[in-house]
Amino acid sequence: MDLDTALSSLVEPSTAQTPSISEPNVLNEWRTACLLAWYGFYQYQGQKIDDFISNLARKAYHIGLHQIDSLSNLSTFGWDLLSEAAAEEWRHVWWSIYLLDTHLSYSTATPSQIQPDSIGTALLRGDLASTTASVRNGAKTLIPTDQADLWKVIQEIVAVND
C-alpha cells in the first residue's frame, strides 16, 4: 500500500470520538483528526471530506472548543481543570478547525459551521511560553462580537508584537 492510499484510508474512519476533554489521549485524537482533515481537504475534493470537516466543527462545538476562555463556560466544559499550557494546546486545535471550516466555506460557497459571535476562545499569541505568561496576567484577545470593533483587536495584536 502506498502512502497516499494509506492516508486516504485513515481520513474516512478518523474523527475525534471523545465526548470529553478530560479523557486520556483526547488531545492527540483531535490533533490527528485535524491533520487528516487538512490532508484530505488538499488532496481530495468532494462530499466525503466536506462532511468530515463539517462533522469535526460540530464536534468541536459539542465539547466546547469554542468556549475555552469564556468565563461563564469554564466549568461547563472542564476548561477550568486544565493548565494554561494544556488550554493553549486546545486553542491550537480550535483555531485549526476554524481555519478548516472557513476554507471549506469559501471553497464550496456554503455558510460556515462556526459563527464568530459564538467564539469565546482567545486568539493565539506566538510561542507557548510567552502566551502562558501573558494569559496568566489576564491578557487574552478574543474576536469581538461586533465586527465594527475588529480594528481594536488588530491594534492590540500589532501593539503586542511590536
Automatic annotation (TrEMBL):
Transmembrane segments: none annotated. One of its GO terms (biological process) is DNA-templated transcription. Residues 34-124 form the Xylanolytic transcriptional activator regulatory domain. GO terms for molecular function: DNA binding; zinc ion binding. Keywords: Nucleus. InterPro entries: XnlR_reg_dom. This is Xylanolytic transcriptional activator regulatory domain-containing protein. It comes from Fusarium falciforme.
